[in-house]
Amino acid sequence: MTALRVVLAALALAGALGLAAAAEAAHVNVATIDGTINPYSADYLRKAIEQSEREGAAALVIRLDTPGGLLASTKDIVESMLAARVPIVVFVSPSGAWAGSAGTFITLAGHVAAMAPGTTIGAATPIGVGSPSPTPTPTAPPVPGEAPPATPPQGDAALRKAENITAAFIESIARERGRNVEWAVKAVREAVAIAQDEAVRLGVVDLVAADVDDLLAKIDGRDVKVGGETRKLAVATAERRPLEMSWVTRFFDVLASPDIAVILILAGLLGLYIEFTQPGVVVPGIVGAVCLLLGFTSLQILPFSWLGLGLLLGGIALFVAEVFVTSFGLLFALGVACFLVGGTMLFDRQDLGGLDVSLWGVLVPAVAAVSLFGAFVAFGVVRGLRSRGVSGVDELVGLTATAVSALSPDGTVFVRGEYWSASAESPVGSGERVVVTAVEGLRLRVRRS
User: Which residues pair with 208 in a beta bridge?
Assistant: First the structure.
């Protein structure tokens, strides 16, 4: 009997130690998105969800600060979040952060949604869909002898289609997570955006928290529905484990920005322009080629327009033409215009989901810098082509010489301390002054001064 009691006590102690170890092992993974939503950030979040499920994490916190991103990548992230077997807490932070466009979808898809003070959410309208769709009205049958009613332009129909699909997508997310469906649809159709306090009042997010520690303390003990079952969050004292992007993912995540792509392409074109106009410099050509390679890598990530890219290439072609054609700056001005227009048309704005090239923050300053530097290079090349030589035999052209013998038309002249054979355009007497007009091998051509 005593032995049995000892065995039971040992089993109880082992169970207690196991529970203590499990409690000590409880942890919360923290993933951070502080840029655009693109295939690489989507892959990072999918892996963070899978790792959290595999490790049995108490929850996955996603710290979110994004202006938006690709709709396809947003869809991939939301699908992973809705199917996750681990509680996901989306936290729009730090103060000043924005869950714009694609970020709105991701925030609504969390099991718990929270915002830090001074943050904003909303404006989820796809770019190019700027106003609410007009309510369709029934049309009467055409009257004989009258023109049929005008059909809406194809472009407007495409925009309405994109708006309707996006609105239905965000509505399904909000309904699944029990959030404010009406506001979610307005965020798409009317591009509304609200601050954190208003978001809590309207039921868009669950709470406001100062930081991750405050957030976990406030949601501790909350019931969430994960994979069809209800779980109670026990995260107040859980260990925080940050999940970092790999350097490769971070590198391509940075490249997946329209602003970065435009800067790289313009820098690459400028480097090649310098190499073309100043052959042999080498370094600008290498740097330009690398920048173009990185810029084209960005174009493989972001949806782009061949027309916009063609305008950028046309701009550099006009810069080069300005060096060899006397256009009094017209070709150069057209090149600058091609850069500006091409930059605004480089990306498919509708598929970017809230992203676009910053016109005044990036495009105009970058084009201005490229134009000024290109003008400086062109001015130097033109001045070099038009200036006369200052060394060797070329410097003889334009100098004044003295005819040592009569030139009729051939003879000898004295110039720069040397005797040269010369041919005159018209007879010149001995001792007269002549001007060198050309150097032909070892003979000078001269004319009377």
Answer: 115
Cα angle: 335, vertex 338, 342; to 5 degrees: 150
Positive or negative torsion for Cα 33, 76, 245, 299: negative
Q: How far is CA 76 from the centre of its chain?
A: 20
Q: Are 196 and 66 in contact (CB under 8 A)?
A: no
Identify which of 5, 2, 41 has the alpha carbon closest to the alpha carbon of residue 245: 41
Q: Contact at 8 Å (CB) between 53 and 20? A: no
Instruction: Pull the structure tokens for residue 278.
Output: 């100043």
Measuring CA to CA, how many Å separate 439 from each of 204, 228, 393, 397, 420?
Answer: 84, 94, 7, 7, 10
d(CA 351, CA 102): 11
Structure tokens belonging to residue 440: 């032909």
As a whole number of angstroms, the distance between CA 240 and CA 29 comes to 6
Q: Domains along the chain?
A: 21-133+156-251 (3.90.226.10), 257-386 (no CATH), 392-448 (2.40.50.140)
Q: Which residues contact 67 (CB under 8 A, 6 or more apart)?
A: 36, 98, 100, 101, 103, 354, 355
Q: Which alpha helices (H) appear in 178-223, and where do they start and end?
A: 181-189, 196-201, 212-219
Q: Where are the alpha helices (DSSP H) in 355-410?
A: 364-386
Tokens of 350: 């509708």
pLDDT tens profile 240-297: 999 999 898 889 888 888 888 888 888 888 888 778 777 777 888 898 889 989 988 8
DSSP 89-124: EEEE-STT-EEETHHHHHHHTSSEEEE-TT-EEE--
Question: 379: helix, coil or strand?
Answer: helix
Q: What is the pLDDT of residues 170-223, one digit of tens each?
A: 999 999 999 999 999 999 999 899 999 999 999 999 999 999 999 999 999 999
- Scanning the structure block, which residue is given the tokens 């209800």? 230
Cα(221)–Cα(103) distance, rounded to whole angstroms?
26
Q: 351-388 burial, b for 16+ CB within 10 Å, e for fewer?
A: bbbbbbbbeeebbeebbeebbeebeebbeebeeeeeee
Nearest to 59 by CA among 220, 266, 210: 220
Residue 1's pLDDT is 47
DSSP state of 299: H
Task: Quote the crossing angle between the two packed helices 330-345 and 364-386, to the nearest 10°.
Answer: 150
For residue 342, give the nearest of 299, 291, 287, 285 by alpha carbon: 299
